[in-house]
């Protein structure tokens, strides 16, 4: 069973968190770490590192509203992939949020994309974990994103959650890489 700890700049595992973020997400999809840490001071924002005993396995950054959970970032440490940690992290989030509708976006399926296989694997992972394509998508920064959720939802709800997370400041996709 995984345990989780809050992510702050003073934790000994903070550099592993930053490295995992850089490895798991393209620069255009990352928000600055200082901004993620700042927003994580809010009660509705959760930024957690997950551990199997003392081994850092991954992280999740999500916003919780009354009825929804917006997962902005979920990543597994590259040395820990393939051991079910991503599913365990999602299960922990589901347990902590008591059955709220989980909402997230992912690069849409595109057989001609350079990372087409990675995209397919991502969709398969979420489907195995009860999070499905909603049939809705949107385009941001020249990239098409599919909306995924554990229950029916729409792009309007996704963007409203994103605005709440970001306090109305704009998109999570700022084009800035996380820094230590």
TrEMBL record:
Q: What class of enzyme is it?
A: transferase
User: Which residues constitute the signal peptide according to the record?
Assistant: none
Q: Name one GO molecular function term.
A: acyltransferase activity
Kindly give the SUPFAM superfamilies that the UniProt entry links to this protein.
Acyl-CoA N-acyltransferases (Nat) (SSF55729)
Q: Does the keyword Acyltransferase apply?
A: yes
Domain N-acetyltransferase, which positions? 2-150
Q: Does the keyword Acetylation apply?
A: no
- Keywords in alphabetical order, please: Acyltransferase, Transferase
Which PROSITE patterns does the UniProt entry name for this protein?
GNAT
Against Pfam families, the record matches this protein to:
Acetyltransf_1
EC number(s) per entry: 2.3.1.-
Q: What's the protein name? A: GNAT family N-acetyltransferase
Q: Which organism is it from?
A: Lactiplantibacillus modestisalitolerans
């Amino acid at each position: 069973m995984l345990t989780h700890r809050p992510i702050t700049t003073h934790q000994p595992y903070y550099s592993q968190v930053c490295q995992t973020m850089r490895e798991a997400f393209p620069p255009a999809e990352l928000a600055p770490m200082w901004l993620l840490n700042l927003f994580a001071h809010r009660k509705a924002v959760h930024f957690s590192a997950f551990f199997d005993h003392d081994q850092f396995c991954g992280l999740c950054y999500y916003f919780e509203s009354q009825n929804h959970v917006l997962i902005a970032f979920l990543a597994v440490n590259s040395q820990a992939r393939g051991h079910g940690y991503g599913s365990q992290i999602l299960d922990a989030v589901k347990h902590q949020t008591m059955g709220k509708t989980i909402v997230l976006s992912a690069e849409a399926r595109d057989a001609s994309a350079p990372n087409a296989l990675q995209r397919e694997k991502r969709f398969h992972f979420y489907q195995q974990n009860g999070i499905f394509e909603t049939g809705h998508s949107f385009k941001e920064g020249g990239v098409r994103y599919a909306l995924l959720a554990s229950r029916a939802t729409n792009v309007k709800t996704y963007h409203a959650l994103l605005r709440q997370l970001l306090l109305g400041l704009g998109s999570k996709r700022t084009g800035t890489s996380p820094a230590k």
